[in-house]
């Protein structure tokens, strides 16, 4: 349904050691799609414009931009098959946990509350609201949560209401085919939640259904503490998801299409630091 407007195979040249030319082909948009509203960073109301533009763009991503569907997949539900491994140590938890075969629901209803770009270093900051996010997957866990010793493996869900995500994105600008692109180098999130519900099946390797039920009840009664225990795992899951999405988006779409007057990276950083691949 969504038509590709101007995806081209273009070449970028890299001067390596000042002598060797390396030519690489990368697919990206060379014409601005109509669903992207451009904003000007050196004009007033930039943040207001970019917030509106980002929301419109995300709506399009949710509906399905073919090139992103191909590289990233659908937004809602969204699959994250990679294994997550995290050792979390805090007052409320000492756990080693793996989440796999994750299915993430809720990004289809995302509200962009604010979208900013820093004028000095072109880092991005977004405030995103999800009425609900739900993670379904398989877990493997060893450790303690809220002083409950755990050793189990099975199905898990974590459902979060009123999730506010503050996203900080580090970028480095680079040139490709006469356009300026964002290289996304780091994504960090801060999560703020309204309410959390959870269920972990097979908590004690199935030894006692009764204890499993009462433990899940205990986690739900103490959901704030449960969330604090799981925060590193959930934050990392959201960070990895956004990193993947932003990288694929900004590999495909020049930064100029979003920020029309973004400076040329050669001028911003000085020519000698530029390596374009
Ligand atoms: C999680 O996966 C890692 C890497 O495969 C493994 O070393 C670790 O023991 C696993 N943790 C649990 C709790 O199964
Ligand atoms: C960019 O600058 C802002 C404020 O000047 C700062 O808070 C932020 O950490 C900087 N980001 C990077 C990636 O250096
Ligand atoms: C983007 O940044 C990463 C890490 O800093 C670097 O390895 C990579 O070459 C950069 N990509 C481009 C296209 O500049």
UniProtKB/TrEMBL annotation:
- Which species is this record about? Drosophila willistoni (Fruit fly)
Q: Name one GO biological process term.
A: circadian rhythm
Q: Which Pfam families match?
A: JHBP
Identify the GO cellular component terms for this protein: extracellular space
- May I ask which residue range the UniProt record assigns to the signal sequence? 1-25
UniProt keywords (A-Z) are:
Biological rhythms, Signal
Entry-linked PANTHER family: IP09473P-RELATED, PROTEIN TAKEOUT-LIKE PROTEIN
What family, per the record? Belongs to the TO family.
**Carries keyword Signal?**
yes
Which domain of life does this protein belong to?
Answer: Eukaryota
Q: Gene3D superfamilies, alphabetically?
A: Haemolymph juvenile hormone binding protein
What is the protein's given name? Protein takeout
Q: What taxonomic ancestry is recorded? A: Eukaryota, Metazoa, Ecdysozoa, Arthropoda, Hexapoda
